[in-house]
Write a structure and sequence with these properties.
Blueprint: E1 36-37, H1 39-50, H2 61-79, E2 85-86, H3 88-135, H4 139-143, H5 148-153, H6 156-169, E3 176-189, E4 196-206, E5 215-224, E6 227-232
Parallel strand pairs: 1-2
Antiparallel strand pairs: 3-4, 4-5, 5-6
Helix pairs in contact: 1-2, 1-3, 2-3
Length: 262
């Protein structure tokens, strides 16, 4: 009868090593002693924290998107590691931060766009109504659509003198028929008052000049108490202009006017 083959358990020369074959091949898996922190989860947290910059400018929304991707990858890797990797809490935190910052930033961005469009529409309607009142001989009512700063610099008689007298009697212009804008404005905050300011172009259609030949002039606006008002028309009411004077061609073909806001 042939001798039985030696095994680790029957070989007397192996001593204490004889029992090694009976240990599980997965021994140690799942124990904290042998787990490592998932690198992707660490990177995801760093990127997610940096995505807070998206609150300053939408450009950094790219970091928030990257943070979501990395966090998702980290979660998949950790759950597929059979317990050899840890860092699931880090990956979840990274995911929450990325989604949170992107959500807040996105809300601010789109809210800003909606507010800007509403401001553009309100200013355009203001200019149209302003010109309509003057065209209808209601210059005193149009004057009430101006900002308090405008009224401090330009009196009602000066305002009426320009629009009811000078403009109407100018041989190359004629009475105002209406005002409009191209609906494009630059809106910023006034560093002194904190109020929002806007600047854009106004187009004055007169009896003798209208359409493409309309008088183009710069107009400034200020938002106070959530209402836009005409702040300045520098070309008509220049700070250093004469208080009153004869109508002239002026820059862009507009008449010179009384002193007003700078």
């Amino acid at each position: 009868m042939a001798d039985a083959p030696l095994t680790p358990s029957s070989d007397p020369h192996l001593g204490n090593l004889a029992g090694l074959h009976r240990m599980s091949r997965t021994a140690g898996l799942g124990s904290n002693e042998y787990t490592a922190v998932n690198t992707t989860s660490v990177v995801a947290v760093i990127v997610a924290a940096a995505s807070a910059l998206a609150l300053v400018t939408p450009f950094f929304l790219l970091l928030a998107v990257l943070g979501v991707v990395l966090a998702t990858v980290a979660i998949v890797q950790i759950r597929s590691s059979n317990g050899t990797q840890t860092g699931l809490p880090l990956a979840i935190i990274a995911l929450l931060l990325s989604v949170g910052f992107s959500g807040v930033s996105g809300y601010k961005y789109f809210s800003g766009i909606a507010q800007e469009r509403a401001d553009f529409r309100q200013i355009d309607e203001l200019v149209g109504h302003f010109g309509k009142l003057i065209a209808e001989g209601k210059s005193a009512e149009a004057y009430e659509l101006t900002d308090t700063r405008f009224k401090e610099q330009v009196t009602l008689p000066q305002f009426q003198n320009l629009f009811d007298e000078q403009l109407a009697k100018a041989p190359t212009l004629g009475a105002l028929q209406g005002m409009r804008t191209n609906k494009l404005f630059v809106i910023e905050s006034d560093p002194d008052s904190g109020l929002r300011m806007a600047i854009g172009n106004g187009y004055l259609d007169t009896k003798l000049r209208s359409g493409d030949d309309a008088i183009k002039t710069e107009m400034r606006f200020r938002n106070k108490d959530n209402q836009w008002r005409v702040f300045a028309i520098p070309q008509f009411f220049a700070g250093k202009a004469a208080a009153a004077g004869a109508a002239s061609g002026g820059a862009g073909g507009a008449p010179a006017g009384p002193a007003g806001p700078p």
